[in-house]
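Annual report, structural modelling task.

Input specification for the S-adenosyl-L-homocysteine complex:
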Amino acid sequence: MSTQQWNEVDDYLIATVLPADPVLAAAQAASAAAGLPNIAVAPNQGRLLQLLAQVQGARRILEIGTLGGYSAIWLARALPAGGHLDTLELDPGHAEVARANLAAAGFAQVAQVHVGSALDTLPSLAQGDPYDFVFIDADKVSNPDYLRWALRLTRPGSVIVIDNVVREGAVALADSSDPAILGTRQVLAMLGAEPRLRATAVQTVGVKGYDGFAIAVVQDPAPQDPAPQDPAP
Ligand code: SAH
Ligand code: DHB
Ligand code: MG
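The model returned the following structure:
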């Protein structure tokens, strides 16, 4: 098993299963030309996000961490007519590239890129209808806060996906002092402990290296405890 083999297999899977996609290829090229880091999801991962949002029937999607809009295009493609995507990005340069890529993909009216630190933007989104699908993929230190916001901004049945939860296996280092790993370990612990969530986390290999993602579905509230019985006569 080698990273070369992971890359070869991923290249094969992507070439075989995913049709050539000039719109996404152009978005990727524009992001690279603008000097953005090469950390967008892989094509087969983007398709997975699209499929998850599609099976959920998502009409309103929230993304935290836009970069050049690559995953945003995949998510926007899952939306029915009248659907909406809000995507949050700290870096104004990234946001500018993303807006252009989303417009070129036909989603200028569907996707709104919000510039600023996500924790500053999220409170303003609480006014709207709940989101059906949330993709968390920004700074990993804030993942616990992002999950708390995702719980506030969703409804039972909504899906929450968190990217990059394995990081070459570093997530399993219980004594790590890396703030990103600490944030990820804390968010995974929240997924396991939160009664409002049914969650899993899986490892992935491929052109994006060795990493993983977590998926959770927001649950209906626990049934009310039975009403207290009248005291016996
Ligand atoms: N989802 C994208 C990749 C996102 S990379 C894709 O797959 O195509 C992570 C992004 O999060 C970067 O663009 C980074 O600038 C942004 N980011 C980092 N900290 C942030 C914060 N506090 N608020 C919002 N975005 C942030
Ligand atoms: C990094 C961030 C990501 O969201 C990702 O998918 C891969 C790498 C990073 O910050 O290194
Ligand atoms: Mg990521």
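The pocket of S-adenosyl-L-homocysteine (ligand 1) is lined by residues 39-41, 65-67, 70-71, 88-91, 94, 117-118, 137-139, 142 (CB under 6 Å).
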